[in-house]
Amino acid sequence: MKWLKENSLALAFMIMFLLAVGGQAVAGYLQFNDVQRAEGADPISLLQYVSSSTFAVDVTENWQSEYLQFFLFIMFTVWLVQKGSPESKEPHKIGAESDKDQQIGEHADEHSPKWARVKGLRLWLYSNSLGLTMGIIFLLSWLAQSVAGQAAYNSERLSDLRDPVSWGAYVTSPEFWDRSLQNWQSELLAVLSMVVLSIYLRQRGSPESKPVGAAHSSTGVEG
Prior knowledge:
This protein is mostly helical. It folds into 2 domains: 50 residues; 172 residues, no CATH class. It contains 9 helices and no strands. α4 runs antiparallel to α7 and α4 packs across α9.
């Protein structure tokens, strides 16, 4: 019970994620077969649908936009600030901060991660591991979206008796960028809303909000 309580936030989102992916698979499968029947084609099984490029591109285009959002937010908040927002650090802390502030090297204590106590490449990698990981996942999901999207796009073209296109032609096509940018703009708007609204609005007990009684100008303060 203690483990469940201490990991309840991650578990809750994991369960909701799995339910959402499952729901998307079923809804997409039913919609896909509706189109198949309308066009006089044979319906496919759920397994065939979830292993298809159609399902893959719908999933990965959302993943890459989410990880782009987090990558940009992590990296931008190193150097950019927003006065009054708990999503920003205080203006005088702009930059990578000192070794003392970051508790690395000689300033690490017995509870610090092992790689925070070393120097050189390992320390640099660990110091930037969150941003690097988010960036790599974004690039991999972007690549997966482009490959799956090309396959789905060419399948539609072939059904219309048109020639398939190369990967390079697809990733420079309006089809690809329409899919990408409609997701990017929504994620960027969501971050903007969170940064600005959290200056003036509160949610009692949430670390994503300032304390209810904190001044609007308080920056980097969590409830």
